[in-house]
Automatic annotation (TrEMBL):
Involved in the maturation of [NiFe] hydrogenases. Required for nickel insertion into the metal center of the hydrogenase. This is Hydrogenase maturation factor HypA. It holds the Pfam family HypA. Gene3D superfamilies: 3.30.2320.80. The gene is hypA. The keyword Transmembrane does not apply. The keyword GTP-binding does not apply. It comes from Cloacibacterium rupense. Keywords: Metal-binding, Nickel, Zinc. Zn(2+) binds at residues 73, 76, 89, 92.
């Protein structure tokens, strides 16, 4: 269960942040999960509630941004949108590329009270 370990690590980071400022709870959390990060958001939501029960994130409002996948071709420098990590350059067909966005998996902001 990949998503469960993600939820656990989000919780760990949040706990640290709450502790740092002597807060009580997280009221809102803003996540960034790229479209090609491989994270299934419905699965994450599925494990979320159980995982966050009685934690600093219990009852927190969750906002999830899903940046599109973009890559830059290593051969022709063309920037293009990708929906899968294995997509080739749409201009020259090269499979070699640098992923620019879409693989994010991070906490962007926490609102702590
Ligand atoms: Zn190319």
């Amino acid at each position: 269960m990949h998503e469960l370990s993600i939820a656990t690590s989000i919780l760990k980071t949040s706990e640290n942040e709450v502790q740092k400022i002597n807060g009580k709870n997280v009221t809102e959390i803003f996540l960034e999960i790229g479209k090609i990060s491989g994270v299934e958001i419905p699965s994450l939501e599925f494990v979320w509630e159980q995982c966050m029960k009685n934690s600093v994130l219990d009852g927190a409002k969750v906002h999830i941004a899903e940046p599109e996948g973009y890559a830059r071709c290593a051969e022709c420098n063309h920037e293009f949108k990708i929906s899968k990590i294995y997509d080739s350059c749409e201009r020259c067909g090269s499979p070699f590329k640098e992923i620019i966005t879409g693989q994010e998996m991070k906490i962007k902001k926490l609102i702590i009270c």
